[in-house]
Amino acid sequence: MIETTSFYHEKLYKALSNRKHIDTPQLISVTTRLDSVDSLGFFQAGKVYQGERVYWTSADTVFTLVGVGSAYTFEAEQNRFFSTRQMWNDVLEEAIIDNPYEVPGTGPVALGGFSFDPLKEENGTWSDFPNSKVLIPMYLLTEWGEETYLTINMMIHPNDNEDELFNLVTEEYQKLLAGTFTYEDDVRVTNQEEVRPFEFKEIVSKATDHIKSKRLGKVVLAREMILSFSDDRKASSVIRQLKEEQTQSYIFAFESGDSCFVGATPERLVKVEENELLSTCLAGTVPRGRTPKEDEALGQALIRDEKNLQEHDFVVQMIKKAVTGCCENVHVPDSPVLYPLRNLQHLYTPVSGTLKEGVSLLEIVEKLHPTPALGGYPREDSLQFIRDYEPFHRGWYASPVGWFDSYQNGEFAVAIRSALLKKDQAILFSGCGIVEDSDPDEEYKETAVKFLPMIHALGGRE
Ligand SMILES: C=C(O[C@@H]1C=C(C(=O)O)C=C[C@H]1O)C(=O)O
Ligand SMILES: [Mg+2]
Known about the structure:
It is a single chain. The protein has helices spanning 5-17, 39-45, 80-93, 162-177, 197-212, 235-245, 292-304, 306-326, 361-368, 379-389, 440-458, and strands spanning 26-34, 53-57, 63-75, 96-98, 109-114, 132-144, 147-156, 189-194, 218-229, 250-256, 259-265, 268-273, 276-287, 327-331, 337-340, 344-355, 376-377, 400-405, 410-414, 418-422, 425-434. It is α+β, with helices and mostly antiparallel strands and 462 residues long. Helix 5 (197-212) crosses helix 11 (440-458) and helix 6 crosses helix 11 (440-458). The longest helix is centred in the last third of the chain and has 21 residues, at 306-326.
């Protein structure tokens, strides 16, 4: 049932007045069900909270989360997955939660991500994005199937005044709900530049040398492209483009400081809903054809291609092993199927299982990251190769980004097909799996195709 505004306000006020008078901050989280809302309008109307906005929409179900403002932000350097979980549990322990719905992604929800490799030296590009950062939004909009929910999360400090907080949030959330999306920017691309393309091919050759001499099985290498604009590029317009064009993908945007990390990734890392786990093996790539006949021929060739099947199998073996360690009833099909996207098609193997008692989503994320679809095999050797030879910092590219709630539901995707927006610049990232038979020119071309979704959404030249 949809609640009236006055009933919601009553609940909010009651939760605020029920706080414990303890000397540490306390989370108050109150959820209501609403009529449908323009989710991008909500994001846009939260402009005063720029730098603390989050957008997430899942690939295969109608599920959108929009976060505006931060009630609480968790950052951790050491033991980042474990520390995040611990801080989250500490906050929940003292929380006052009023959420009669208990729908996934409502109530207290944390959204954020982790960097690819905390051991790689930072060069300034990613200074707005720590090695781990998740936040509980102050205002959280949840679209789940046909239903829409609003959760207000507040961290109340011992000396805060309840009436002031109540007045602030009741005024702000109504503005957010009334937001309607409009294109904010009329921005042209003034320059488009591939970063060190020849060096990329040289590193691919070095990787195949290492593989031939059995020092590595597979390693994923990436490169960058830089787009410059006539003015600042607004995240909301980019999200809108991606939503229209990349319907088979997770669309995500995480603002932090002056930057926004945005993308449309097809690759789930792990999803948990009511103890059922899903993971995805996605590796092996060809472009889409220009005609249905060419498309079919490319797909059929992919599904039989030894080199691509090998790239894929490294991922399947590793994920299967990791999931078997924390699940029962693990199911992994024997061979991959095609996963077609707008610009590319991949080899795809879904993995499912029932989570063993007491295993948390962040533990699984830690176990899985990075899979051989983003790092390589063996894990440590491939990471060291990337650290030593890849001439840029991946930051959050190729890393887990996602959300989790207080009911043990959540989902993380791998942040590929992505770009870091920094005012009037965007840095795009694209990588590919290198195995023994990789050819540097072919891998270069594969990364060129993987840039296309972001180039198109940003208005660049294809
Ligand atoms: C690393 C990326 O993609 C990964 C590499 C793939 C491949 O080499 O075939 C396919 C899907 C992804 O696992 C990327 O898009 O940047
Ligand atoms: Mg490949």
